[in-house]
Amino acid sequence: MDKMLNEKTIKEKLDTIYIGKDFYFFEETSSTFDEAKKICLKNGSIICAKRQTNGRGRLGRSWQSENGGIYFSVILKPEMETAEVHIMTALCAVGIQRAIESLIPCYIKWPNDIVTGSGKKICGILTRLEANSENEKYINVGIGINANTKVFDDELKYASSIALAKDEDIDENELLCTCLKQIENICDAKDYTLIMEEYKSKCINLGKRVRILYAHEDKSETGECIDISKDGCLVIKKDDGTYANVNSGEVSVRGIYGEDYV
Ligand code: BTN
């Protein structure tokens, strides 16, 4: 089926200046994070796999990575402080949301998930700050899109795919190229403030009540999401009236009025 990821088609369709000019394609790998460590990477290098045998998700979870999904890492080497890594992740989420929105209505769920209108997760993003053998820092933005995935592991109650939402298979090569083009547009933007405003306008959590589940403690709290801070934290007004800024490495967030996003 020529809608399935295919290195030759991607290279023919890709219309970017530097994102994906170095393009590494794998029929199967353990994880694009593992491949990145073996390759000498440039700003904008892409590592893409059709299938991962050890795909990693946030908060130590695994990421189901069968054929039909799109699994890729974007390597970025911006001049920035460690704290700003969160911003790059949020910016990439906006790029991916724009690309998927060309196929189905979709939104951003803090920190970096893309969900359908009914709150089903169709994409996740996990960013790592890494260093190469010369101790040069780079950011690896790992993106997993449930493009044509039809079957999910039993525990993934809130997962879906673009094909299931659209009721037809989509062209994986076309979608990947659109994502890379959008990421390049966003990375080249002079002012990230506008893109963070776009993030907020598309974020389903803002103004909603949430339950915050702490990953490393047996504790949860409830409150209202009132903002996203400049460094990508979710700002919560807790039910006890105090405020908390929570970062994506610490918590997962669920809606508590029926819309139980995971
Ligand atoms: C999440 O938990 O929502 C983040 C999922 C990130 C999955 C992607 S797929 C490409 C990259 N390689 C991995 O092993 N994980 C990320």
Gap between N and C termini? 32 Å
Write out the distinct hetero groups bound to the structure: biotin
- Strand fraction band? 25-35%
Strand order of the largest sheet: 1-2-3-7-6-5-4
> Main β-sheet: number of strands, strand sense, barrel status?
7 strands, mixed
What does this structure look like?
With 262 residues, the protein is α+β, with helices and mostly antiparallel strands. The chain is built from six helices and twelve strands. The chain has helices spanning 7-13, 32-38, 85-101, 162-166, 172-187, 192-202, and strands at 23-26, 46-49, 70-76, 106-109, 113-116, 121-131, 137-145, 209-214, 220-228, 234-238, 243-246, 251-255. It has a seven-stranded mixed β-sheet with strand order 1-2-3-7-6-5-4, with helices on both faces. α1 crosses α5, α3 (85-101) packs across α5 and α3 (85-101) crosses α6. The longest helix is centred in the middle third of the chain and has 17 residues, at 85-101. The mean pLDDT is 91. Biotin is lined by residues 31-33, 52, 55-58, 61, 63, 71-73, 113, 124-126, 142-144.
Layout of helices and strands, plus pairs?
Elements: H1 7-13, E1 23-26, H2 32-38, E2 46-49, E3 70-76, H3 85-101, E4 106-109, E5 113-116, E6 121-131, E7 137-145, H4 162-166, H5 172-187, H6 192-202, E8 209-214, E9 220-228, E10 234-238, E11 243-246, E12 251-255
Parallel strand pairs: 1-2
Antiparallel strand pairs: 2-3, 3-7, 4-5, 5-6, 6-7, 8-9, 8-12, 9-10, 10-11
The structure holds biotin.
The site of biotin has 20 residues, from helix 2, strand 3, strand 6 and strand 7.
